Amino acid sequence: MTTRSILQGDREATTVLLDDNAFDVLDDRGHEADDLCVIYLGHLVQRLPRLHRLDDLTDGSVANATADHGWHRSAISAQQREASVAASSLAAQRRDRLTGVGRRTRLAVRAASEAVAKAQALSPGRRRLGRARSLAAIAFRCIGSLAAKSAGQPAGPATQRVG
């Protein structure tokens, strides 16, 4: 999670939290920012190369920017953790509202992922695993199509309806 202001280059990232394998990359407004959004970490690191210096940040840690362009690391406080959880939930709700992706889609993604995991655990056979992966790929394409349709966008090659 980050802010649109950081993504647009209007504000600098001043705080990075890593908790429960989720990153919060925040500006000076912290979790109270009104433009929080969810983004893939890889995209964020491409835009902000300075984040490469935090590749050793451990779970349950926070890094604050220093005047010399470095980072000061410490443990996350209970208050920071609570703010992160609340802000993450709010940012995900905003994302779902804007993209039209709702509960049904999240459940479908979870079901497809679980199907692949079960097939891998139950059978090392290539045929059964290949079938599970194929079903999961179909499910993900359908989910992408639903999300694109909900957002008013035409389904592209990666999101075309299958079946």
3D structure, described in words:
β5 (61-65) and β6 form a beta hairpin. The protein has 163 residues and is of the alpha+beta class. The two termini are 35 Å apart. Strands 3-2-5-6 form a four-stranded antiparallel β-sheet, covered by helices on one side. A two-stranded antiparallel sheet has the order 1-4. The protein is elongated and about 55 Å long. Helix content is 48%, strand content 15%. The chain folds into two domains: 2-99, no CATH class; 103-159. Residues 155-163 have low confidence and may be disordered. The chain is built from five helices and six strands.
Structural class: alpha+beta
Gyration radius (Cα, Å) is: 19 Å
User: Which outline best applies?
Assistant: elongated
Major β-sheet annotation = 4 strands, antiparallel
Structure summary, number of beta strands: 6
Average pLDDT number? 76
How many discrete domains?
A: 2
Which quaternary structure do these chains form? single chain
Tell me the series of helices and strands, N- to C-terminal: EHEEEHEEHHH
Low-confidence stretches: 155-163
Provide a count of the helices: 5
Strand content: 5-15%
In helices, the fraction of residues equals 40-55%
CA distance, first residue to last residue: 35 Å
Strand arrangement in the largest pleated sheet: 3-2-5-6
